[in-house]
User: What shape does this take?
Amino acid sequence: MISRLGRATVAAAAVSAALSLPACGGGSWSLPAPQVASQHAPSNQAQLIPAASCQTTSCMYVTDRNVNEVVVLAETAHGNVAPVQTISGTKTGLNSPVGLSVDSSGMTHVANFNLNSVTVYAAGAHGNVKPTQTITGSHTGLNGPDEVALDAGGKSYVSNWSINAVTVYAAGANGDVKPLHTISGSNTGLSGPVGMTLDASGKLYVANLNANSVTVFAAGANGNVAPIRTLTGSNTQLSGSGGVALDASLKIYVSNYNNNSVTVYAAGASGNVAPIRTISGTKTGLTYPTEVTLDTSGQIYVSNRDANSVTVFAAKAHGNVAPIRTISGSKTKLNSPAGIALH
Assistant: This one.
């Protein structure tokens, strides 16, 4: 098995090995040799927040796993544009950052796959800054954390790819703390859990990379519990399902690595059901789509790992359609983008 970003927690000697790995759900596919995570050369001091910061405008937050950064762009960004903020440097604690979420106060929560940690940054954080909170240690149960999602009360839900579990932490959790809840076990259907989201009622939606499925759990689920719904089967067209998001009507959006698509399902969909819409084809620019999210108008934002891009599609986009915007180029600093969030 591989993680959704081709990041196995292995010794350095194994990192240099050529990868030709079994695909999730059958067949095979090859990854480029993974890059050793490195840092850009940020200042040793925290930089001042730029004037056009996310304190005054809506922003798009993207993790760059290869260079241990969080790149922050204007939500309306298009083309080869520079970030308005960047969190990067040795003080940040970022190490193979994958999924992220931004809370209502603008604090950024990041899952660090290689360090088994979740780091949290102050609103407007920019430069080589220390996190305000770090969840890490043997009591946390973190093992290959891949995504962090937040509920309305500020609790943190973390998918742990390496152990097929979701761990849940109290709002403001810091240090080597035990989870409040852990969803884990043979009844859960979790298999390589990666992307997650919650609806307003607290139900948890999890994309399972290894099972080509989306499992939905009741609010407050804990232990070896069965999901209340599961999307799975050949009709779903799920293939390497990595990111999951909901729109205002609770339709389900899933990014699929293996077939370069975004599939959309009716609210409440369950079982082996066909998508109601699919974004796929050469015009889309989807290239190993890693995460998906939506803005308040229903536009669809997708991070593309192998294209170093974010593609934005019109609400209700369907078929082999071109994005309405593409963020890509050297100025953007996008380098193997993984998680994406809007705030």
Summary: The radius of gyration is 18 Å. The chain is about 0% helix and 35% strand. Residues 99 and 253 are 16 Å apart (CA to CA). Helices lie at 12-15.
